[in-house]
UniProtKB/TrEMBL annotation:
This is CBM1 domain-containing protein. Residues 1-23 form the signal peptide. Keywords: Signal. The keyword Secreted does not apply. It comes from the Eukaryota. Residues 375-411 form the CBM1 domain. The keyword Transport does not apply. SMART domains: fCBD (SM00236).
Length: 411
């Protein structure tokens, strides 16, 4: 068991790039539900534009108002192996697009030692302080997002640190991370790595964009003990996710686009991977996370209560947004339109699911004509949708087109 622990910890530290780290809390969270809900970006809205895979506690809902609920005290089950963690963690989902333009959802697979996690789930890490610096655990009501689903270029994505992909030669591969999607078949799948900022303003549990209340160190890195900026002076744990997408069944290049480009597209309509993002809603019970951080807990943490993966697999939710997300689809769920660089549709190669009609471009969205004469939205940015009050005029060279009733995008 000690050898196994050492191997797991070594893999975790290599992933995070944490030389000399003493401890990293690492655990499995099985799938809770996969559906089009996003209570952070679209609170109270019955469906979000794109599909997410969600893990964690069963308080996940259309609305998660922190003034009305204390998730850590009210949830009754969690898919995570630390049974005092009722937080919710979610990311977009991945699809394979066949040459004829049809889509099928890529399954997930469990990580090292977590192979039995229902639906593959995700591996969650919390890293405590380094260089003998303590961290302050998140508080009830805290939530944050990292990444932007509208980004399609490396220059845009560089705003965020350590959002990467690993092409797995083995499940232990932890080198060769890229900020864009792998361009060659990956023997054991593609791992998405999502790491969050590590400095907090110490006041706000959230912000309008769900990002501004957190920041990166002003110099250096979290791992090197880099200082937090004066605007965000409180050091918080480094939270990060590993999600393994089981692309093995699609490794035959005869199924790939004729131009040889990679065939995987994210549920928000992105082939590049630059729009990768992750969401987090804190829900640890009482002071359990602070106790774990103060104790520099390792993979195993006697300060915390645990449950088996099999027990976590019993916690699940039914979809609130009832729709078909499996099998061959003619469009991405939510009728999301693929935007940004993408391979051409057409040519030979089977899709295993008949010949659905490829997605057709959306019609231009009507603009409201009011309050936007002095602003413009960059290409790929949001320009409309139900409840949207921002700028609706697209920059030269792009047009506002409706993705669905919830948002429109400059294309």
């Amino acid at each position: 068991m000690k050898v196994q622990q050492h191997n797991l910890l070594a893999a975790a530290l290599a992933l995070a790039g944490m030389p000399g780290a003493e401890a990293v809390l690492r655990f499995s969270c099985s799938e809770l539900v996969t559906e089009r809900l996003d209570p952070l970006v679209f609170p109270g809205v019955a469906q979000s534009p794109h599909l997410h895979q969600i893990v964690g506690g069963n308080m996940f809902n259309i609305t998660m108002d922190p003034t009305q609920h204390n998730i850590g005290e009210e949830a009754t089950c969690t898919t995570c192996t630390f049974s005092e963690d009722f937080s919710n963690y979610w990311t977009a989902t991945l699809f394979f697009r066949a040459r004829n333009g049809s889509y099928i959802r890529v399954p997930q697979r469990g990580n090292i030692d977590f192979e039995s996690a229902r639906g593959g789930g995700m591996t969650v890490y919390y890293a405590p302080g380094y260089q003998n610096q303590k961290v302050t655990a998140f508080r009830p009501g805290f939530r944050m997002i990292v990444g932007n689903p509208f980004y399609r270029t490396q220059a845009e994505a560089s705003k965020f640190r350590q959002l990467t992909f690993t092409c797995l030669d083995t499940l232990y591969t932890r080198t060769g991370e890229t900020t864009s999607m792998p361009t060659q078949p990956c023997r054991e799948g593609i791992m998405a790595n999502i790491r969050f900022p590590t400095c907090w303003d110490g006041v706000n549990l959230d912000s309008p964009d769900h990002m501004s209340h957190v920041a990166y160190p002003s110099s250096g890195t979290f791992e090197s003990g880099g200082p937090c900026p004066a605007s965000h002076p409180v050091r918080i744990p480094q939270l990060f996710y590993e999600v393994i997408w089981d692309t093995r069944q699609f490794n035959d290049r005869s199924l790939w686009p004729e131009d040889g480009s990679q065939p995987f597209v994210w549920s928000y309509g992105d082939f590049t991977g630059y729009g990768t993002h992750g969401d987090y809603v804190f829900g640890w019970k009482g002071d359990s996370l602070q106790r774990a951080m103060d104790a520099n807990c390792d993979v195993y943490c006697p300060q915390l209560r645990t449950q088996s993966i099999a027990q976590g697999n019993q916690c699940r939710q039914q979809q609130k947004v009832r729709e078909n997300i499996d099998g061959w689809l003619s469009k991405l769920p939510g009728d999301i339109e693929v935007t940004g660089p993408q391979p051409p549709i057409g040519g030979g190669g089977g899709n295993g699911g008949g010949n659905p009609t490829p997605t057709q471009p959306s019609q231009p969205a009507p603009t409201n004509g009011g309050g936007n004469s002095g602003c413009s939205v960059a290409k790929w940015g949001q320009c409309g949708g139900r409840g949207y009050t921002g700028c609706t005029r697209c920059a030269a060279g792009s047009t506002c087109r409706a993705q669905n009733e919830w948002y429109s995008q400059c294309l």
